[in-house]
Amino acid sequence: MTVKNKSYIRSYQYKKIIDEEAASGICLFSEKGNILLRVIDLRLQLDRVDLRDIDVVILGFLPQLLIKEVIGRLQRAGRSDAVVISDFFLSLWDTVTLDRRYVSPDGRIGRKLKKMDEAACRLSQMVITDTKANADFVVSEFGAGTDKTYAMYLLPDKEVYNTDLLNAKCDSKQPETLSEKGNPFKVLYFGTGLPLQGTDIIVDAAEKLQGQDIIFTLVGNIRGIDDKQSNVVVHKWLKQPELARLIAESDLCLAGHFAGDIDKADRTIPGKAYIYEMMNKPMILGDTRANRELFHEDNRHIFVSLGDSEELAEAIIVAAAQRKI
To answer: 272-299 pLDDT, tens per residue?
Structure first.
């Protein structure tokens, strides 16, 4: 069960594992508009589940919000022996205080969030993170035992993101792109615009490359684009098949993370990097511990320093020049 929707990349991954490995399983997702409504929705859905038949409970995205409730219900159902697995894809304390910097890490709210993270680690029989670097962080900050903390890398939906897209018929209306004059080098990025992602670095790099035969397609909550910036097109939101088609049509994809002043950028592999890899697309990655767990520098994997738009722009120019050779 997870407070994310069914199409979320981690939701898809756990459902796939359950379908393939479990004798039977029940997946609870929520499509509600905010996190509080999702928690309430999941508790109502849980009312309809006979926990006496459950051997393993996987708590996806933000298990901190559900774990005490779930363990209490398991105990009342006589299933204290059920295994509880928490996906620590996100730490509440890390996200709210160090990443987004809404409150002080040592303040009253920060201390409360840290206790919630610690409780989730303590109450879980297994803690799953997205990278080895993040596993080290969870162990050191929240006391998760090394004997029960594991990294599990993301797995995108192969039905949506695959290498057959350019040859496949797409019935949905395609997003508009910039004018197809000549054969410009196409660079793509998508993201939610979180500080961690460093979209300001991407926007600055695009500005430096105005006048080059390069166009940028940016998808998501991207701020700071000048209306006069003629080498950029922005889509606020796209359906997954439309996004997949744009990725397939791009010459180079930007993965990141690019923020230079947020520690979490060094510990996480962007979900989009897995998608680009599945679609066999060249990409630019931030030079981080996490990215180097899976990727090595070659003609499809280019590493740049975090927080450096000049280096990012130069890497794009080099990639564009290589296409012409």
So the answer is: 999 999 999 999 999 999 999 999 999 9
